[in-house]
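Lab channel / #folding
Pinned by the channel admin:
"Please post every new chain as: sequence first, then the C-alpha cells as a reply. Keep commentary short and put observations after the output so the thread stays searchable."

First post following the new format, from NK:
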Amino acid sequence: MLMTAIRRWLTSAALCTLLIAPQQGLANAAPAIDPELRQSLSEAAASIDTFADRFEAEVWLVDISSRLKRYMPDDKKRLEFLRILHQEATRAGLSPELVLSVVHVESAFQRFAISVVGAQGYMQIMPFWKNEIGRPDDNLMVTRTNLRYGCTILKHYLDKEKGDWIRALARYNGSLGRTKYPEKVLLFWEKYWFVNH
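Reply from TO:
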C-alpha cells in the first residue's frame, strides 16, 4: 500500500517536473557554481564525525552487509565502506539507504568508476568541485572523501528542493526536468536497500 502511494506520488511529481523544470546538463555538472553548495562542501570537507548510536549502527551494518555482499564480497572492505557511508549520510542528514541506492545506480559500488564526463568514484563526483572549495589535493577515489562530497551535494539539492526527492536526485544527476534517474534510484532503494526496523 505504501509503495502504491509512492508510485502514485512519483507519477504526479514526474508530470509536474516535466512541465515546469528546464532541462539540465550532465552528472553533477553545472554552468554556474552555487555559492551555498561551495560553502557546504568546504565545511563538510573539514569535519569528521562518528556514529551517534553505536548499537543501532551495528544492527544496521549486519543487515545491510548481508545485502551488499554480492557486490562487495570482501568482508573487511564491505564493512569499512558501510561504516563510512553510514557516517557520511548521517552527518549530512540523509538516509543511509537512499545514499546506498545512489551509489548503486551511479557506480555499481565500483570505487574507481570514472564516467565518460569525468565524474569519479562511488558517487560520481565531478573533479571541478575540489578547486571550487580550495582543496585541489583531495582524492575523489578515497572512500570517505567521495562519500562526503556526494552526500553534501545531495543534501544541498534536497534542501534546495524543499525535500522533493525527484527534483533533488535529478539535480544531483544533472538531469533536472527528467525523472528517469530519480525513479531508478528510488526503485533500487525499494528493491535492494529499504529498511523497515
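NK: The CA atoms of residues 71 and 120 lie 18 Å apart.
TO: also worth noting, The radius of gyration is 16 Å.
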